[in-house]
Predict the structure.
Amino acid sequence: MRLGELDRRDLAARLERRGLDLDTGPFVVRIETPIPALVDEVQGLYRDYPLDEGGGLADFHVVVLSPSGPLGMRRWWRRQATVILDEDRPFEPLPLDMAVPMLEWSINWCAATRANQYVMIHAAVLERDGRALVLPGVSGAGKSTLCAGLALRGWRLLSDEFALIRPGDGALDPWPRPISLKNTSIDLIRRWAPDAHMSTPVPNTNKGTVAHLRPPADSVRRAREAATPAWLVFPVFAVGAAPSLTRVPKGRAFFRLADCSFNYPSLGIRGFRALSRMIDECDAYEFRYSSLDDALGLLGALPSPTPTA
Amino acid sequence: MDVASLARLLREPASMARLAPAEWDVLLRQARHAGLLARLEALARDAGVLPGAPLRVRTRLEAARTDVELHHRLIRWEVTRLRRVLAPLPVVLLKGAAYLHAELPAARGRQFNDVDLLVPAEKLDDVETRLRDAGWRSTLLTAYDDRYYREWSHELPPMAHKDRQVVVDVHHNILPPTGRLRPDARLLLAAARALPGSPLRVLAPEDMVVHCACHLFMSGELHKSLRDLGDLDALVRGFAGGPGFWPTLHERARVLGVERPLYYGLRFAERLLGTPVPAESRRVVARAAPPAPVRAAMDTLVLAAMAPDQPARPRRGKGLARGLLTVRHHWLRMPPLMLARHLVHQALVRRSERG
């Protein structure tokens, strides 16, 4: 059963009472919240996700509450949202309208701090014909915008934040999730795909204005289909720049990739082997661009990689 | 799941084979919160439970083990750096670093975040200078905190090397000099044992047990008490076969003046984790028991405070129990006037930080 098949009342009841176990592919996420506005947003963003039927065993447990504060003041004045992950509260409460970004960041935080079954890279991942394009990136490099643009034009979205490398065979497991768009990208993507569903933009977060884009239904449906890494592209957004792809030597690419990893040090030799293998199998580029159309054209025409023996 | 059920699974790991998925869900969350997830992995692996467990359970437990292995590597590396800098001085490893380097079962699946050292009080300045010269810095922010450590505690302000995150605590005793229990650190140092093929030393087995017991129910993290009790259990099980262990243990607790903490430690370890304590030893240790009403109160408080948190639904009684144990911890740590001064200062600081 998919989340979209629950009516609003059932969904709210499940979210409030015992939590809703969402099957997101590699992880089952239990979301629990009594906040009505968040129920609506979850319904919009996670419509296509299957509910987990595994008997109540979840990987991440995220509770989003609106605390009543001293003397119940917070029920009326400057309402807040706070997150409980398992029994910890790792984040400060934020204004109530930031509940969606908080939920999304919390789920990411759970994976980044725990999922050592993977070598995790902070990267967007997309796939075409079984070959994966990995876009590692620091914030501000335009990774999410590029990712949203490609996912809305024929590439399959694996993830906009996490490249999950399986240490055993080097394949990438998908983790399709709502794509986090910031500031001017929100309008850009709206113009680019007027029919795509987005959560209500939230101004004044520490990343500026944030909205989340619902992942394409096909990506969610294929959340267990792994892909083989083929291209490693480090995006650099530069206003007015003509699009250009420059090869990055493999040695340098290795360290840039390790730098973007959440858990490379934790994995020791397994992490080193997995990254080495990925570098061997991929061609690495630095990509400067200023418009999505240019980017689509150039990335769509990437030649097959030439693996090193 | 209450504390007794969690403890029962730690005591009889084979019974994990009968858990339903929803029970695993609760167990894994509570074990993580109690700092016991990787220990659970080690126990489950030994008991042969893992192959039959749900894939998600195996994956999560193995991921926790990966984390602990990293921490063990970081601690071992830090100790090699410390060894270089402190070479000619007599240095005794305490707690986690000691369990790890002495290859004791207590280190299995146990996450340690810092390195604890014991040095003679008269060498404290020398040790601090050497560490500073080699790049270690205090991790404290305020002059008050710095003074608190130097005047009222049994250790230097915590330090970390500027290029690394591992915190190093240099102790000159195992309990604060302001407290009621004041073991003579010279006795501990004199009895310390050399590690084979290394200039490093660790406490004698009985002293290690005594030290571990002294720290139970004393930290700011009472929800991790079951984990700390697990350390005591693992130490006792590991050492109990040695010649004269129990009589020596009683003798050391007496000489060091810490029979009461040993009593509490063994009592709760036996009750919750089934730590094997011979009848004769139980009698000897019980001589240090408090009067019956205090005993009853401690039983209630400790068990209530140790109960794992229920997700998002904290229980009122547990908050109270943890509050009272925190008061007890402070009470044992310093005389009333000093305590009042310290608490007033902390309250003012917190207020000004909020305002």
